[in-house]
């Protein structure tokens, strides 16, 4: 489960890069259903109100976007990428302790669902989630590309690529497309969606090689 206190201090109105991987580098999604449900969980658990089991409640819904409106969000999700054994989120905290509360609900709920489905017990994620404060706008833009194209940065291909879920298509398929992300903070800085798409594809080689993220790659168990 993703839970626990962080050394980092989360402030309302600030942006953070949040990520974690499966315990012992194991997969956290084993089929398309799991991938879709993880993304749905991002929407379902982003609420200050307490809700029931993710397995009993939100996963009875058949499609993302069919859930009831939230009373108040804990975070704004800027972008996300779910890979077979790890995930990345770019979040803005909008409620007090919003990120810690959101990640606890997400981790507990998804772990309960996964364990019940596969008849397992114990933690699914590698301890407490990791987080980095995003202190500049340039870094915010860069991380939006990094997260949206993270599967390409890790060069995930073949059967594993079918398990990937990313907000990339939500960004480039049009501003009116249904999205769980608050895209305006990013897209409003570009003249068009096409310009943002070009920025991301131009940034991808840097994403792959950038040594600034070497510690994160080590945390996730990838060799540089």
Unreliable stretches (pLDDT < 50, length at least 5) are 1-6, 62-68
What structural class do you assign from the helix and strand content?
alpha+beta
Q: Rg to the nearest angstrom?
A: 16 Å
Distance between the termini: 27 Å
Mean pLDDT, to the nearest integer, reads 84
CATH class: Alpha Beta
Give the helix proportion (percent range): 25-40%
Number of helices: 8
Corresponding CATH superfamily:
Transposase IS200-like
User: Could you describe the largest sheet, including whether it forms a barrel?
Assistant: 5 strands, antiparallel
- Count of distinct structural domains: 1
- SSE order, one letter for each helix or strand: EHEEHEHHEHHHH
Taken as a percent bin, the fraction of beta residues is: 5-15%
Tell me the overall shape: globular
Strand order of the largest sheet: 4-1-3-2-5
CATH topology: Alpha-Beta Plaits
Going by CATH, the architecture would be 2-Layer Sandwich
Topology of this protein?
Blueprint: E1 15-21, H1 32-44, E2 75-82, E3 86-93, H2 98-118, E4 130-134, H3 137-148, H4 150-153, E5 165-166, H5 168-172, H6 184-187, H7 193-209, H8 214-219
Antiparallel strand pairs: 1-3, 1-4, 2-3, 2-5
């Amino acid at each position: 489960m993703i839970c626990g206190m962080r050394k980092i201090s989360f402030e309302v109105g600030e942006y953070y890069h949040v990520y974690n991987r499966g315990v012992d580098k194991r997969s956290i999604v084993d089929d398309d259903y799991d991938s879709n449900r993880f993304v749905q969980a991002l929407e379902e658990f982003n609420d200050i109100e307490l809700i029931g089991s993710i397995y009993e409640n939100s996963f009875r819904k058949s499609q993302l976007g069919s859930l009831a409106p939230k009373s108040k969000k804990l975070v704004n999700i800027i972008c996300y990428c779910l890979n077979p054994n790890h995930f990345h989120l770019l979040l803005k905290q909008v409620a007090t302790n919003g990120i810690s509360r959101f990640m606890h609900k997400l981790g507990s709920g998804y772990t309960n669902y996964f364990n019940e489905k596969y008849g397992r017990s114990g933690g699914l994620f590698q301890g407490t989630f990791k987080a980095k404060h995003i202190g500049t706008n340039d870094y915010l833009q860069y991380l939006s590309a990094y997260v949206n194209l993270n599967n390409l940065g890790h060069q995930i291909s073949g059967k594993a690529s079918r398990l990937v879920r990313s907000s990339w298509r939500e960004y480039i398929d049009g501003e009116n497309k249904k999205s769980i992300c608050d895209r305006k903070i990013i897209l409003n800085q570009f003249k068009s969606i096409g310009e943002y798409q070009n920025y991301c594809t131009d940034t991808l080689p840097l994403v792959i090689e950038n040594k600034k993220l070497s510690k994160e790659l080590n945390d996730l168990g990838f060799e540089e």
